[in-house]
From TrEMBL:
Pfam families: Acetyltransf_1. This is Acetyltransferase (GNAT) family protein. The keyword Transcription does not apply. One of its GO terms (molecular function) is N-acetyltransferase activity. Keywords: Transferase. InterPro entries: Acyl_CoA_acyltransferase (IPR016181), GNAT_dom (IPR000182), NAT_camello-type (IPR050769).
Amino acid sequence: MDQIEILPYSPELNPFFKSINQAWVEQFFSIEPFDQAQFDSPDEIIVKPGGTIIYAKLGEGIVGTVGLHKVSDEVYELIKMGVAASAQGKGIGMILAKAILAKAKEMGAKKVVLYTHSKLAPALKIYEKLGFKEAELEEGKYCRCDIKMELDL
């Protein structure tokens, strides 16, 4: 099997950020305005305010992506972790999650938070294995999320 390579943010890869994440969001939920804004303008919405996006490459193709949204100098939100359907079950989600947590530390994060849904069982397993713990969910943060998790770095 080919090695999985983690690629840093590059605007040329933005179409993969959109296509990979749009596929899973539409499979389980519906696209909300904040999703569309992130898909259409990741530079403006995620990167320029202090966040980043990374990508997983398998062979010649981009098969996964995840982002970090800066909440404060010490807190980042893990957002839009997705793996293409054709590459699921190969451990790419765990590799992406570990890589983005390392990047969060590099960027000065003391805590990473995430919002998810209980029906996204494979993602929940990854987060739990990495040490994320459930936290109190704020009202109205995201319509589709029923779980908030945090990890102190």
